[in-house]
Structure formats: C-alpha cells, structure tokens
C-alpha cells in the first residue's frame, strides 16, 4: 500500500529534486548566541572584575573593615582577566591578518 504524497513530503527535509540539481540543503540557524555576543559578554565580565577590584581598593583605603587578602585577590583576578582579553584580542588580530593575506 502506498503512502499519500503529502505524507512523504512532510518526512523529507530536502526535496530530492533540489539535491539532484546540486542546490545546497537549507541550513538551520543556530539557536545559541553569536560570536559578537560572546565577545561582548566576555568584555562585560572583564569590566565588572576591574570595577569590583577598583571598588575594593577604594574601600580598603577609606575603611578598616576590608581585608588585604580580598583586595589582593580581586586585583589579581582583574589583572588575569585583562591579560586574557589581550591574548584573545591578539589571536583575533592574527587570524584577521592571515585571512587578509590569503589569495583567492
């Protein structure tokens, strides 16, 4: 017994005619955040760590209740975040330069 044509079309993701003609199958859009969104989120994280370290240093100089080890830890975390951001920036620039020098 043969299935109706409408039922078969619902099962096929790409019609066979398009595949035989060489047309690329449709690509589903990714559901996650884009590359620019990830970079922006990373930079916001770096900015928040630097701001938190700056706030702790300010409170340490004005108040007696802030322990030295908290300030030291916040400053080290902020420094490492900035260094990581600079490394990512350098790798992105290297990749861009390499793409620009490629011959087509």
For the residues shown, what is the average pLDDT?
Answer: 82
The biggest beta sheet is recorded as: none
Approximate shape: elongated
- Tell how many strands the DSSP assignment holds: 0
Low-confidence stretches: none
Order of helices and strands: HHHH
Radius of gyration: 27 Å
Structural class based on helices, strands and sheet pairing: mainly alpha
Residues in helices, as a percent range: over 70%
Q: Could you characterize the architecture of this molecule?
A:
The chain is mainly alpha-helical and 104 residues long. The protein has a domain of 71 residues. The chain contains four helices and no strands. Helix 3 packs antiparallel against helix 4. The longest helix has 34 residues. It is elongated and about 65 Å long. 3% of the residues are buried.
Tag the structure with descriptive keywords.
104 residues, mainly alpha, 4 helices
Short description, anyone?
The protein has helices at about 5-10, 15-20, 35-60, 70-100.
